[in-house]
Amino acid sequence: MEDFTFVNKTEVRFGADRLDAELAPVMERFGKRILLTYGGGSIKKSGLYDRIMTALKDFEVFELDGIAPNPKIASVRDGQRLTKENDIDAILAVGGGSVIDASKLIASARFYDEDPWDLVINPDIRQTIDQLPFVDILTLSATGTEMNNGSVISNPDTHQKLATFGPNTPAVSFLDPTLTYSVSKWQTAAGSIDIMSHLFEQYFDNATNNDVQDGLREGVMRAVIKWAPVALADPKNYDARANLMWASTMGLNGLVGLGNQNDWTVHPIEHELSAYYDITHGVGLGILTPRWMSYILSETTAAKFAQYGRNVWHIVGDDDMAVAKQAIQQTYDWIKSLDVPMTLPGVDITSDEHFLAMADSAVEVGALDTDAYVKLQAEDVVKLFEASMTTDNFE
Amino acid sequence: MEDFTFVNKTEVRFGADRLDAELAPVMERFGKRILLTYGGGSIKKSGLYDRIMTALKDFEVFELDGIAPNPKIASVRDGQRLTKENDIDAILAVGGGSVIDASKLIASARFYDEDPWDLVINPDIRQTIDQLPFVDILTLSATGTEMNNGSVISNPDTHQKLATFGPNTPAVSFLDPTLTYSVSKWQTAAGSIDIMSHLFEQYFDNATNNDVQDGLREGVMRAVIKWAPVALADPKNYDARANLMWASTMGLNGLVGLGNQNDWTVHPIEHELSAYYDITHGVGLGILTPRWMSYILSETTAAKFAQYGRNVWHIVGDDDMAVAKQAIQQTYDWIKSLDVPMTLPGVDITSDEHFLAMADSAVEVGALDTDAYVKLQAEDVVKLFEASMTTDNFE
């Protein structure tokens, strides 16, 4: 167990239909000039937009819409301009990870006079400048952005998809599971896989005897495994949506990663796929994760995979390697049961032309050769891509 | 899963030997006039007192010592006077639950001009007055006070031991597992039982499908079960002390109790024992807990106890009632393995003379007849006391 410092000041307001009464007094803390950020038109179709505008009828609300999945730096540039031109007091981000991620960076860009892509590639700058307060209303359970200080922003011009961290987490997060009733099966599955991947990235770590943390992670994993299929079959099941939403938040609010040694592996690799092919992040993770698990399984890692099998999947047996293999197979089967493609050709990646370039970049950006749980070189990552072309190892 | 609002702004600094370099810059945030609070002389014997005074050599440090286990309102009165007389900027509490609990109330009493016992019996007052910032250096893993806003304060004149909640949690908590190396076997056992009891109180709840939360609690329980015996056998085992310390914090920082319906049961009952007989809180909990579990086990509750048995104790079997009974027996055996008395006569409570008075008070203070997981009347609580006179049901 490694030393850590932890603080997370986000106020979570969890439950159905709280925003109508609570949004105005919350935003009032920060001022009257609000930048409302959102994605496509779904919040207008669902009526959420009207509810927000009714709640904020005594505020001056400016709008930035059209923030796309895998949010682009162009949206941040638009937001930067709007916050400056309109002397915005606070941002209200309504959406999933993309909208909230972009809004966090806009909140910093308000206090920066050059191109905000600088803030992504030079991480130190954001720690030295102010950040607008930002509140979110989450509409997709996946990234955990609703209670952390991270964003992932893409720059199509440079084929880069990079993480950036601001000084602050959201001031307030409204977590209303009913707002995810309308999330498609595809996005529900992808979001659930993303949550699981966050937990895996933090669980498979070389810090020893980090048992409280392992226990927290295992507990959240079991909840996701149980409830994701229920949400797919019964999209308006409150408990399913509530457990997935809270699992999303707990999976990446910093807490379950404390006491760790290593950085992440599968996320940096997937970010390359999304940057090159703009595929759905969680689906990419679902394809890569079982291949990564199989690839790094060894005498050294078998004990941890067996712990995962016993505590998460209730697999019984004394042979660590056998339990580990069964756990990886069950992981694959669970992802597949969510009805997502299980190969790269399934997401229209049929050629290996970018494998080496993506692998090189993943190793560099993710420091996979120095900081990962099991260190990977570019040729290892290429093998993961190659293994992802077929289902040979799993079916 | 019930609605909840959650925020916890405590900054945790976890790890060995951080305070020498970090204490001064942390206290500097609040001012130069510090009230240092502690218990008996153990921090002087261990050298911790000297380290603190060295770190704070540029501060004006005032002292309140002698805060006893089951902290008394008299210590709070002393602290109130010292904060007012010396215009204190912040409190630094060094100790376990008793010192930190008393210090939290002193931090409120600084801004109250009457007897601070008022603040305990009229909970609303504390929410309307200010509270000094307070920092703690934890020396005992047990109560979770290091990351919550609660205190338990005793008034020997009235035989009352009551919980009170302030507006704030600690500003900063230094969690250094090595500071618990010198904790006695008795206090280590009692503290570990206290942690487990906090988790039980939150786990056995009527909110359904609260799976993320159940998973978090189960995970922390497994860590305590694993590491408490190690800490007893090998008091300077860092990982044992680290897991118990972090389990203490996670067990009662508010997080694992979210989404619940019910109030607690065993704590209010034990508080009567401690108030009447001044026994060690955790030992009292260890005696009462298995009796309470057995008493409330029924067709209605068997499924939850079986879940506990399967996820925490890895008990295999399809018969919920059988798994539940085995889980309760294993709970008893684990507590007993910590070498603590398992009956009331073992803590010198040999007469039933106060059973009814204590039961009446527990039901009233704890609202056991209306708000508990399984509702209890005074006669039920008397039966728990009676069952605690012998080991008949367990051995």
Fold and architecture overview:
Chains A, B: Pfam families: ADH_Fe_C (PF25137), Fe-ADH (PF00465). Chains A, B: Keywords: Oxidoreductase. Two copies of one chain form a homodimer. The first copy, chain A, has about 400 residues and is of the alpha/beta class. Chain A folds into two domains: about 10-180, Rossmann fold (3-Layer(aba) Sandwich); about 185-385, Dehydroquinate synthase-like - alpha domain (Dehydroquinate synthase-like, alpha domain, Up-down Bundle), CATH 1.20.1090. The first copy, chain A, has 16 helices and eight strands. The first copy, chain A, has a six-stranded parallel beta sheet, with helices on both faces. Chain A is globular, with a radius of gyration of 21 Å.
CATH architecture of the largest domain in chain A: Up-down Bundle
- The count of domains of chain A is 2
Structural class call of chain A reads alpha/beta
- What is the CATH homologous superfamily assignment of the largest domain in chain A? Dehydroquinate synthase-like - alpha domain
Estimate the global geometry of chain A from the Cα principal axes: globular
Strand content of chain A: 5-15%
Strand elements of chain A, count: 8
